[in-house]
Structure formats: structure tokens, C-alpha cells
Amino acid sequence: MTSVPLSVLDLAPVAAGTGTGTALAHTTVLARRTEQLGYLRFWVAEHHNMPAIASSAPAVLIAHLAAATSTIRLGSGGVMLPNHAPLVVAEQFGTLVALHPGRIDLGIGRAPGTDQLTALALRRSVEALSADDFPQELARLMGYFDQEPGASPIVAVPGRGDAPDIWLLGSSDFSARLAGHLGLPFSFAHHFSSANTDVALEIYRRSFRPSARLAEPYAMVAVSTVCADTDDEAEWLAGPAGLSFLRLRQGRPAPLATPDEAAAYPYTAMEREFVLQRREGQALGSPDTVTGQLDALLARTGADELMLTTMVHDIDARVRSFELVAERVAPKLNR
Length: 335
Prior knowledge:
This protein has twelve helices and nine strands. The protein is of the alpha/beta class. The protein has a single domain, classed as Luciferase-like domain (TIM Barrel, Alpha-Beta Barrel), CATH 3.20.20. Helix 3 packs parallel to helix 5 and helix 6 runs parallel beside helix 7. The model has no long low-confidence stretch (mean pLDDT about 95).
């Protein structure tokens, strides 16, 4: 599509009035269509206890999407490693690589992807709520893929010799520095931490050490994007995502509202300001508007790749947004 690779991050949004089966079917539709449009990769994110998001089991969903597509790279954006035993993750993604060689990415994060009570249910002890041992657990995970025969009595099968491309995900200086230190590609969560983007990428590049996996730093930036025929339509389509995030922060998560429901919601002045602040850093509008916004982001960050995430109520509008970006935005982007 463009000299700047474009990819997709999907959360399998559950729209009000539908269920998780519909959400996962819609994600499959989107994966197939974005493959046709030439997007490089399609990632799904791990979230738990969120009524608006059905992507709680990335490895399972990736297996389904890989069987439903043929060329697009599939991956996790990401697997939250503190929620899992490294051996299990190695076996799951080793299995995916064995089934679909050359197409699997393993994006790793250290946040819980949920609230603390749910994180406790996942990790099963208060002591495990800390992510202080994340670097050691990440090294253990990578070791299962790279292990020499006879090096350990514990072998990941599949896993050893079936390594996915490993990425580190983050929204902080810590993740940026660790990705650089380990010589891994880095994906920054600009879509919910836009104030930290520039500093984190600078730290990543400054900290980078070449590794067997990567010779030079490679930074991807994930950005919320809604593209429609007009600016007004894009604003209307984006309303449910803002309301969903507000409800999540207020501790009352719900399925993704319709645009009409979001427009009719009685926001207080403080709530309205919260939603507007979250809009900062997003690419939102007509193709011309989105082109300018993404160009500015590329110029500012020097990103090697952009990953677009689109949370709208209607699957047709979601697909249309990615079509407009591929057909009318991507050809105009400047590296």
C-alpha cells in the first residue's frame, strides 16, 4: 500500500445488542478483508472481564484467524506475560508457528490487561500481582524457543525451534528500555498513552543493542483510527469508543454502545473533558484529515510501522475505515 507498513490491532469489540460469537465472527471478517487490502499484520489483544472486548484468549483466536486467512501475519498485541507461565506461552505459540510457519508474531506485555481483582483470579496469589520479575520471565520464555538440545530437562514441544517473531509492547520508559536492551522490535501503545510516545521511542532507540533477532531498532506505533467519508461521520462513529472508555474508568464497563446512544449520553462537563482528552493523538476524520494526522505522527516519531485500531459499533463501518485508509490514505503517506 505504501512505503510505511500498516497493520491492524483488533480487540474483537462486542457491540450492544450482539454477543461474543458475533464479535469474533466480525473480527474474522475484518482479518480477511485487511489481508485483501494489503495490511502487513493483524494482532489481537488480551483483555479480561471487559464486556466490550471478546479477545481474552489471543492464542486461540490467532489459530482461528490463521486458518481463515493465508498471507497476513497474525499475532498478539499482546499476551500479558505475568498472567501466564512462560512454558505455556512457548507451547501455544510454538504450536501456532508449527501450524503456520512464517506468519506468527508474539507481542508480549507486562500489564494485567484487566482490573486487580481479575488479575488476582488469573495469577492466583497476591504475591504474583507484582510484575517485578517480568524481565526474568521474558528471558525464560525466549529461552524455551532458543534452547539448545540437552540444555535443560524442560523442553517446550512445540516451541523449541518453532519461534515466532517476538515483540515487546509497552506504554512506558521501562518497556522501551528493556526492548532496546534485548534487541527486540518495540510496539508503543500510542492509542492510550500518547503523551509518552516520543520519549519512549527515543529511549528505545538510544538503548538498542543488536541481537540475533534484530540488527537495528524497529519501532511500531499503535494509533486509534476512525476514517469515514467526512469528518462529521468519523466523529459520530467514534462516539461509542469514548463512552466505553469512560464507563471502564468509572468501573461500570458495558458492551459498545451505538453511535446514537453515545451521542445521547448526558455527559457532565468533567466527563466530556475526559473523553476529549482521550481523543488526543487519534487519527479521526475523512481520508484527507486522517492522512494529515498520520503524516504528522510519522514525522514526529519516525515510526517504522503504524498499527491502526478501530473501535466502532458497526462491522461495516469498521471495515470501511480500513478500506478508506488502504485506498485513499496509505498512498499519500510520507515516510
